[in-house]
Amino acid sequence: MYLFFFALLFIFYQYMNEKKIFESQESRIEELEANSKKANDSIEVLQNQVRDLNYFTLLGNDNAMTYLENLGYEAADVEALVSDQIYDFNLTKGGNPLVPFEGMNGSMKINKLKFLNHKWIQADFTDGKYWGEMILEYYFNEKNEIGLTPIASLLYPN
User: Fold this and answer.
1) What's residue 39's pLDDT?
2) Under 8 Å CB-to-CB from 54, ≥6 apart: which residues?
3) Taking a C-beta distance cutoff of 8 angstroms, is the pair 108, 96 a contact?
4) Is residue 38 classed exposed, middle or buried when 0-12, 13-18 and 19+ CB atoms within 10 A define those classes?
5) Domain end marker among 12, 30, 55
6) Which residues fall within 8 angstroms of residue 87, CB to CB, at 6 or more apart?
7) Sheet of 109-115, strand order
């Protein structure tokens, strides 16, 4: 009789212990599923933001890429070619000739470029102390040479 009673208590203890472990695991699974859903929602929001930010870029604008492809160019190659030419102008004595301001603390050089589409580039320039931004127009002439024209610029007050 004692053996039967002891076996019954042991079985009851095992049942309660396993039930507690099962409930703990279930709550952990629900918590992880909620965290996963929250993370997926955050990823979707970030992907939408990136898509919106890439809208005004050369590689994010299908119409601009199609325009360049119709001319026989790849958009990524054009970006690299034009960037290299603009950055090469930084090596010119007296500063980059595309920047319409004289450097007060050295020569003005273009630091960053953002290709807006198949015609315009936003550029950031500085002389180390003073800085500004400008819009450049780029195009290919009849000889397939790159032409660059400053359209607008500003120098930030220090």
Assistant:
1) 95
2) 60
3) yes
4) exposed
5) 55
6) 110
7) 109-115, 120-126, 131-140, 146-155
**Which of 132, 128, 131 is CA-nearest to residue 106?**
128
CA distance 135 to 88: 18
Separation CA 93–CA 99 (nearest Å): 13
Do 50 and 88 share a structural domain?
no
pTM equals 0.71
- The per-residue pLDDT for range 85-130, each reduced to its tens digit, is 999 999 988 888 999 998 888 889 999 999 999 999 999 999 889 9
Does 64 share its domain with 88? yes
Closest alpha carbon to 125 in 137, 136, 117, 138: 136
Whether residues 111 and 34 fall in one domain: no
Return the pLDDT at 103.
82
**For residue 110, what are the domain limits?**
57-155
The structural domain count of the chain equals 2
